[in-house]
Amino acid sequence: MLSKKLEDAINKQINAELWSAYLYLSMSTHFANEGLPGVANWFEMQFREEQDHAMKFMNYMVAKGSKVKLQPIDKVDTSWETVLKAFEDSLAHEKVVTALINDLVAIARDEKDFATDNMLQWFVSEQVEEEDSVQGIIDSLRLIGNDGHAIYMLDKELGQRDPEPTATSIP
Ligand code: FEO
């Protein structure tokens, strides 16, 4: 069983992960409407990953005999002026998530809850990867500027992103 403090903090994190999923789903549908199916695909894969992050936390809570309490999900933006703006928003959001994960690690260590600390290390690494991949796309978009052909090519590349194995498919 987790401490009440950690249980509350992880429940908040589950909400943050589901909000992230909702944000990326909104970005995906926006760019599908804008005629950029590759960008839409990239954000849809991100949407799926965020759902999976929430599942990992929920599975952990259940395994520890703690209560998952799902809360309402706040609204998200529904349109972005440019692809670059959407990815910049994504990076800003991922930095917030990284700080939240770091706060969770600090609580777990303070409580000498090494099992939770160990579980959280997966998320620590995942956040490094997430920020790096979004930063890489931002760098490309800044280089491209308003070059329509290059945006078309980048859209093709982003369309090739495949789904990751999910929490339920990882033993
Ligand atoms: Fe679940 Fe993108 O952090």
Top keywords for this entry?
171 residues; mainly alpha; Ferritin; binds MU-OXO-diiron
Q: Can you put this structure into words, describing what you see?
A:
- With 171 residues, this protein is mainly alpha-helical.
- Helices cover 74% and strands 0% of the residues.
- The longest helix is centred in the C-terminal third of the chain and has 31 residues.
- The relative contact order is 0.16.
- The model has no long low-confidence stretch (mean pLDDT 95).
**How many extended strands?**
0
The total number of structural domains is 1
What is the helix tally?
5
Mind summarizing the main beta sheet?
none
Element-by-element helix/strand order:
HHHHH
Poorly predicted ranges: none
Tell me the distance between the termini: 22 Å
The CATH topology corresponds to Ferritin
Global structural class: mainly alpha
Using only CA atoms, what is the Rg?
17 Å
CATH-wise, what's the superfamily?
Answer: Ferritin, core subunit, four-helix bundle
Give me the CATH architecture, please: Up-down Bundle
CATH C-level label: Mainly Alpha
Residue share in helix = over 70%
Cofactors, ions, other ligands: MU-OXO-diiron
- Indicate the overall shape: elongated
Q: Into which percentage range does the β-strand content fall?
A: under 5%
Rounded mean pLDDT score: 95
Structure summarized in a few sentences:
This protein has 171 residues and is mainly α. It has helices spanning 4-33, 37-63, 83-110, 114-144, 148-158.
Secondary structure elements and pairings:
Layout: H1 4-33, H2 37-63, H3 83-110, H4 114-144, H5 148-158
Bound molecules: MU-OXO-diiron.
